[in-house]
Each structure stands twice: as structure tokens, then as C-alpha cells.
């Protein structure tokens, strides 16, 4: 096998262990080989950096696409505002019908299940398999399974985030009452996930068309926390 | 909404489809922004970190550093993102908002996969020069060298993925490309 062949295999990660030894030997004894290797290694970094620039440019394009879409939807809001004033003119019936549909879309636009940020599934395969099981189910949106497992876990070890993800699972199952009870408990008794729970309480209130309650939660969020501050502000404006 | 990413395999991604590249980006974007909000970074910074995390993930797939998904794509993105945010905060020496617990941020050892290449090295002078002249090469050379050095293709795989007909053709095309590159750099110096 010639030296060039060794380099081919090096860069496609396909050196056998014998070739590997040969390769290392050459690096130490053959200056020309070493220079060629360094050149190609540098080239590899250069190509990667070039590809990275391309990818970044592509993503920026995607991003500006997303932004212009959002601008369009803000624009639609002002259309909605005009429609709303017309609705007011038409009468209270029109007005209430208009807003009753709006609550649902406000909820749906803003509801996202909270991602699993506490438990890294890959690295912990051998530890506490029950917790792993729960989060695997949660990430796969099998909320009922997740819930059952969280239930067992919270009896075993009352970690505070378990309660939060239990509430999330209820929300995923659209059992708002149970979710609400748990979120409320968290805001009263816990230190973590308080802002997050407040946010979800606000969303539930919106879904239940309880404007006053929703405003209270959102104002609390805007004043006291940073989590979803901008979104909360937007929602407050939309609820005005 | 129908979610695609649960069924995406490494092989799908490695095809290099622009559409899939975009789709995965869009699908995880809001989730990532939501998650990163608690670090009290401005929105533009969050987007920037998200893009960098996504590119790091993508590069690792393309370069064969991730051979098999051991967790969901979003887990990879969050894990890399956390690491980048930590780095950013350290660099900015920024105080984090009071309702955030610094111990939540993970270090590299706790990355979803500690073998990931995080793109941390700055380019050397030689590499900058190579990058500059790489772009001056013809399209065919760029593609070939990219398959070889970025994607880590073997000569056989290059034949399958391109119009080259035999190993010898690939090899001589590649060495011609390298020769041109070297010449252009030398001429610029001399």
C-alpha cells in the first residue's frame, strides 16, 4: 500500500489497526509524508469551516423567512383589531362571538409542552430506570404512561420537578383541572419551575376564557420573572 | 402537527437534503427559544446559539462523529446549546437573572455525547489561506474535496455518490485539485 492510500483511509476513518501503526511510523520518520498529512488536515478544517459558513447562511435565510411570516401575522393582528371594532359596532353579540374563538387560538398559538430539561436520557441508561422510562414516555408524548410512572416516582422520591412534569402530562392529556391544581401547588410550595408554572396557569386561564385570572398570572410573570416575559407581554396586550 | 423528527435516521440526514435541514431547524426552534429564555439572553443571541448548536450537530452527523442517534435530535440540540450558552455567559462574564440556578448548566463532560466535536478551534493562518483559495477552485473540485474531507467519504463512496466512474479517476481528479490549490497559494505568496 502506498502512502497516499494511507491518507485516503485516514480521512475516511477507515485505517485498520495495522495501517494505523504504519501511519504513525511514517509520521515520525518521513518528513515529506508528515508535511502532506498536515496540509490535508489543514485543508479538512478549511473545508469544514467553509461548509459551516454555508450552513449558517442557509439558516439565516430560513430565519428571515420565519421573521417575515411573523411580521405578516402581526399585520393580521391589526386587521383583527379593525374587525374587532367593527364587531363592537355591530353589537355585543358579534363582539363576544369574535373573542370566544380568539381565546382558543391564543391558547393554541402559545401552548408548547415544556421540554425535558432535567433528565438526559442517553447517559443514564443504567441509573434509575423508572425515571428514565417516565421521561422517554414524556418526550414521546405518551402522557398517560408518563403520568403513571411519574406517579410512582413522586411516591418514591419527592423531587420537585416530578410534580412539574406530572402537571405537564396532565396538560398534554387536556386534563386542565388536575394540571391547574399541581401548578398552583408548585407556585406556592416550590422554588423551581415557579415562573414556568405561572405561565402555564395563565394559558389554562386563557383556555377557560377567564380573562381576569389570565391577566393576573401574566402580570405576575412580567413583573417578577424573565421566563417568557415577551410572550406574556404580547398576550397581555392581546387580552386588552 | 405531524412531527417528522422522531423517525429521522442518520442516513436520512446524511443525504444532505436542504428540505430536511430546514424542517428540523424549524421544528425545534420555538422549543429551543423557550428553553433558552431562562438564561436571560437577548433573542438575537438565542437564535445565534441555536443556529450554532444546530450546525455543530449537523457537522457531527455529516462527519460521522454521531454514528447512531442515542437520543432525540432535540436532546442533542439542547445539550449542545446549553454548553454554548455556558460558554457565552462565561465569556461575557454576565450575571444571570436571580431566579436562575447556575448549577443547572451542564459542562462538556455532561454533554449528550462527549465525543462531539464542538468547533471550538479557531482557524490557523494556513487554514484561513486554504479556505480562501478553496473557494477559488472550480465547482467540481470543491464538491469532490468536500465529499472527501468534510463528509469523510471513501473513494468507493465517492464513486457511488458522483459521476466519477473509477477509483483511478477519483484519485487523479483529487490530486489535480490539491495541486491547483497548492499552486494558487504559492503564487499568492511569491
Automatic annotation (TrEMBL), chain A:
The reply on keyword Ligase is: no
Q: Which Pfam families match?
A: TPR_6 (PF13174)
Q: Which residues cross the membrane?
A: 74-95
Q: What is this protein called?
A: Tetratricopeptide repeat protein
Entry-linked InterPro entries: TPR-like_helical_dom_sf, TPR_rpt
The source's domain of life comes to Bacteria
SUPFAM superfamilies found in the cross-reference section: TPR-like
Which UniProt keywords are present, listed alphabetically? Membrane, Transmembrane, Transmembrane helix
UniProtKB/TrEMBL annotation, chain B:
Could you tell me the superkingdom of the organism this chain comes from? Bacteria
Q: Where is the RNA polymerase sigma-70 region domain?
A: 24-94
- Keyword check for Transmembrane, yes or no: no
The residue ranges crossing the membrane are none
- Keyword flag Lipid metabolism: no
UniProt-listed InterPro entries: RNA_pol_sigma-70-like, RNA_pol_sigma-70_dom, RNA_pol_sigma70_r2, RNA_pol_sigma_r2, RNA_pol_sigma_r3/r4-like, WH-like_DNA-bd_sf
The alphabetical list of record keywords is: Sigma factor, Transcription, Transcription regulation
Q: Which PANTHER family match?
A: RNA POLYMERASE ECF-TYPE SIGMA FACTO, RNA POLYMERASE SIGMA-70 FACTOR ECF SUBFAMILY
Q: Which family does it belong to?
A: Belongs to the sigma-70 factor family. ECF subfamily.
Name listed for the protein in its UniProt record: Sigma-70 family RNA polymerase sigma factor
Q: Which organism is it from?
A: Mesonia profundi
Upper taxonomic classification of the species? Bacteria, Pseudomonadati, Bacteroidota, Flavobacteriia, Flavobacteriales
Amino acid at each position: 500500500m502506498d502512502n497516499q492510500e494511507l491518507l485516503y483511509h485516514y480521512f475516511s476513518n477507515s485505517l485498520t489497526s495495522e495501517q494505523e501503526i504504519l501511519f504513525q511510523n511514517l509520521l515520525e520518520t518521513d518528513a515529506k509524508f508528515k508535511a502532506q498529512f498536515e496540509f490535508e488536515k489543514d485543508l479538512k478544517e478549511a473545508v469544514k469551516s467553509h461548509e459551516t459558513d454555508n450552513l449558517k447562511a442557509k439558516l439565516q435565510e430560513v430565519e428571515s423567512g420565519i421573521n417575515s411570516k411573523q411580521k405578516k401575522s402581526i399585520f393580521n393582528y391589526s386587521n383583527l383589531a379593525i374587525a374587532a371594532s367593527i364587531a363592537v359596532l355591530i353589537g355585543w353579540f358579534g363582539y363576544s362571538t369574535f373573542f370566544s374563538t380568539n381565546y382558543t387560538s391564543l391558547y393554541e398559538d402559545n401552548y408548547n409542552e415544556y421540554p425535558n430539561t432535567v433528565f438526559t436520557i442517553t447517559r443514564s441508561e443504567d441509573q434509575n430506570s423508572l425515571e428514565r422510562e417516565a421521561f422517554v414516555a414524556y418526550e414521546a408524548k405518551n402522557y398517560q404512561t408518563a403520568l403513571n410512572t411519574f406517579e410512582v416516582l413522586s411516591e418514591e422520591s419527592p423531587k420537585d420537578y416530578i410534580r412539574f412534569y406530572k402537571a405537564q402530562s396532565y396538560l398534554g392529556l387536556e386534563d386542565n383541572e388536575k394540571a391547574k391544581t399541581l401548578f398552583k401547588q408548585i407556585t406556592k410550595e416550590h422554588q423551581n419551575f415557579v415562573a414556568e408554572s405561572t405561565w402555564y396557569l395563565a394559558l389554562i386561564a386563557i383556555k377557560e376564557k377567564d380573562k381576569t385570572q389570565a391577566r393576573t398570572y401574566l402580570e405576575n410573570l412580567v413583573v417578577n420573572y424573565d421566563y417568557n416575559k415577551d410572550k406574556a407581554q404580547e398576550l397581555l396586550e392581546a387580552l386588552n | 402537527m405531524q412531527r417528522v423528527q422522531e423517525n429521522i435516521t442518520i442516513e436520512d440526514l446524511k443525504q444532505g437534503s436542504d428540505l430536511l435541514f430546514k424542517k428540523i431547524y424549524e421544528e425545534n426552534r420555538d422549543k429551543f427559544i423557550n428553553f433558552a429564555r431562562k438564561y436571560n439572553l437577548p433573542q438575537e443571541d438565542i437564535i445565534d446559539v441555536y443556529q450554532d448548536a444546530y450546525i455543530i450537530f449537523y457537522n457531527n452527523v455529516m462527519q460521522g462523529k454521531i454514528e447512531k442517534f442515542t437520543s432525540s435530535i432535540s436532546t442533542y440540540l439542547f445539550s449542545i446549546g446549553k454548553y454554548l450558552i455556558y460558554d457565552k455567559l462565561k465569556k461575557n462574564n454576565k450575571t444571570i437573572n436571580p431566579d436562575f440556578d447556575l448549577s443547572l448548566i451542564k459542562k462538556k463532560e455532561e454533554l449528550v455525547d462527549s465525543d462531539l466535536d464542538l468547533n471550538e478551534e479557531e482557524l490557523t493562518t494556513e487554514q484561513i489561506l486554504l479556505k480562501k483559495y478553496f473557494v477559488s477552485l472550480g465547482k467540481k473540485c470543491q464538491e469532490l474535496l468536500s465529499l472527501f474531507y468534510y463528509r469523510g467519504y471513501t473513494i468507493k463512496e465517492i464513486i457511488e455518490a458522483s459521476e466519477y466512474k473509477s477509483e483511478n479517476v477519483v484519485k487523479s481528479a483529487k490530486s489535480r485539485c490539491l495541486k491547483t490549490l497548492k499552486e494558487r497559494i504559492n503564487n499568492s505568496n511569491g
